[in-house]
Amino acid sequence: MTTFSEYMAQYDHEHANPWNKVLHGVGIPVIIAGIIVFALTFWRTGAALFVGGWALLFLGHRIEGNKPAFFQGVIYFLVGPVWIAKEVKDALLGRRAASQSGGEGRER
């Protein structure tokens, strides 16, 4: 049975292009906001946000040259938002650079 960590690693592998990461970093929150706005208040605005967010995701995959991960399984509808949250956390805390360099240079 595949673990959530393995799904995350696969998702990360398929989203290596910096432009794809940026488009996902914007598109996924826009999709989530669209769902919330659609459900609570302005359905037209929510629908526009939802469709616009998906357009950004598909553009990112066109740039990267692969298909969206959810074609491999519906679990990726959950993995995507978690992956974006991890990417934002790592960027804010500077963890990506430290993990790539093996943590060297952090102690002084």
The radius of gyration is 16 Å
Round the mean pLDDT to the nearest integer and report it. Answer: 81
Q: Distance between termini?
A: 43 Å
- Number of alpha- plus pi-helical segments: 5
Question: How would you explain this protein's 3D organization?
Answer:
This protein is mainly alpha-helical and 108 residues long. α2 (18-40) crosses α4 (76-93). It has one domain (14-100). It has five helices and no strands. It is globular and about 40 Å long. Residues 101-108 have low confidence and may be disordered.
For this entry, give a set of tags.
mainly alpha; disordered C terminus; 108 residues; 5 helices
SSE topology:
Layout (H helix, E strand, L loop, with lengths): L3 H10 L4 H23 L2 H22 L11 H18 L1 H6 L8
Helix pairs in contact: 1-4, 2-3, 2-4
How would you briefly describe this protein structure?
The protein has helices at 4-13, 18-40, 43-64, 76-93, 95-100. It is mainly α. It has one domain.
